[in-house]
């Protein structure tokens, strides 16, 4: 199987051009290629497929083999791949995902994509649709107990469920311990991605993320969008202006256009290397 390893601010996936390759049992393949000791090493597998409803389709799998609906860093890399590898010459394209069609705009420098702006769509705030078990229609600054400690969370779906939790010390957090307690908490019927966040100023928030099915990753694009939305809902940052989200792998710029009720994410995408692997 021919593949390309790519990363968006450290969130790395193995990408396969399924216009040319066929991948059987993608969940099993995702587990194999993601292994950082016996495989290629990645946060998962993303298949680039033809689409009848968009320019391309993105089909993603986490490192544990489970299928994901959407990946913000992944979709930027898909956009870079299809342009840089000659599958399209357009700088505005549509990509079908399990959470709907996303529209992306490419910033091209010297014939290569440098950054990508993604229209991530409207944030879902209805608790039942995220889904989060709650007595409230929206989960904003709601109490949750995990590991014997009470936290305050805000729930947002960007095509996948997120719980944004604000804490005082992001860098010193024992995320390997607390992350799984949130992921498998009974109030999240489909598990959850958890963003442990700290507001730096009214335009900047830092975060670490525990992703369902993958553990801690260096970055999560949908998670960064969720943090920006949650920070605006809680009044921590200025609305109607871009918010810089600082992740372990780098920064993303998030803008929630509340008039149009859509979230724009802008960030880089990079090729790490091309290769072949025998499955």
UniProtKB/TrEMBL annotation:
It is found in: Cytoplasm. InterPro entries: DAP_epimerase_AS, DAP_epimerase_DapF. SUPFAM superfamilies: Diaminopimelate epimerase-like. PROSITE patterns: DAP_EPIMERASE. The active site is at residues 71, 220. It comes from the Bacteria. Its main location: cytoplasm. Pathway: Amino-acid biosynthesis; L-lysine biosynthesis via DAP pathway; DL-2,6-diaminopimelate from LL-2,6-diaminopimelate: step 1/1. It catalyses: (2S,6S)-2,6-diaminopimelate = meso-2,6-diaminopimelate. The keyword Amino-acid biosynthesis applies. GO terms for molecular function: diaminopimelate epimerase activity. Pfam families: DAP_epimerase. Substrate binds at residues 11, 62, 72-73, 160, 193, 211-212, 221-222. Its EC number is 5.1.1.7. The record marks 162, 211 as: Could be important to modulate the pK values of the two catalytic cysteine residues. Keywords: Amino-acid biosynthesis, Cytoplasm, Isomerase, Lysine biosynthesis. PANTHER family: DIAMINOPIMELATE EPIMERASE (PTHR31689:SF0), DIAMINOPIMELATE EPIMERASE, CHLOROPLASTIC (PTHR31689). Homodimer. Catalyzes the stereoinversion of LL-2,6-diaminopimelate (L,L-DAP) to meso-diaminopimelate (meso-DAP), a precursor of L-lysine and an essential component of the bacterial peptidoglycan. Belongs to the diaminopimelate epimerase family. This is Diaminopimelate epimerase. The gene is dapF.
């Amino acid at each position: 199987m021919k593949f390309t390893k790519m990363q968006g601010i450290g969130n790395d996936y193995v990408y396969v051009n399924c216009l040319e390759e066929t991948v059987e049992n993608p969940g099993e393949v995702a587990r194999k290629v993601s292994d950082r000791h016996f495989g290629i090493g990645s946060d998962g597998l993303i298949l680039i497929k033809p689409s009848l409803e968009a320019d391309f389709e993105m089909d993603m799998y986490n490192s544990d083999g489970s299928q994901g609906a959407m990946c913000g860093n992944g979709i930027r890399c898909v956009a870079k791949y299809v342009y840089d590898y000659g599958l399209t010459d357009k700088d505005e394209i549509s990509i079908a995902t399990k959470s709907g069609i996303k529209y992306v705009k490419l910033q091209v420098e010297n014939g290569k994509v440098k950054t990508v702006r993604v229209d991530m769509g409207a944030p879902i705030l209805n608790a039942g649709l995220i889904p989060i078990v709650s007595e409230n229609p929206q989960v904003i600054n709601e109490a949750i107990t995990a590991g014997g400690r009470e936290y305050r969370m805000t729930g947002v779906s960007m095509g996948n469920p997120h719980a944004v939790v604000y804490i005082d010390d992001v860098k010193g957090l024992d995320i390997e311990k607390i992350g799984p307690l949130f992921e498998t908490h009974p109030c999240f019927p489909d598990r959850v991605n958890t963003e442990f966040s700290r507001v730096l100023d009214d335009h900047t928030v830092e975060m670490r993320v525990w992703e369902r099915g993958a553990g801690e990753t260096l970055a999560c694009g949908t998670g960064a969008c969720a943090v920006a939305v949650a920070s605006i809902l809680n009044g921590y940052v200025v609305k109607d202006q871009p918010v810089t989200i600082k992740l372990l792998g780098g920064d993303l710029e998030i803008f929630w256009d509340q008039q149009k009720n859509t979230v724009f994410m802008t960030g880089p995408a990079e090729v790490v290397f091309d290769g072949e692997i025998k499955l």
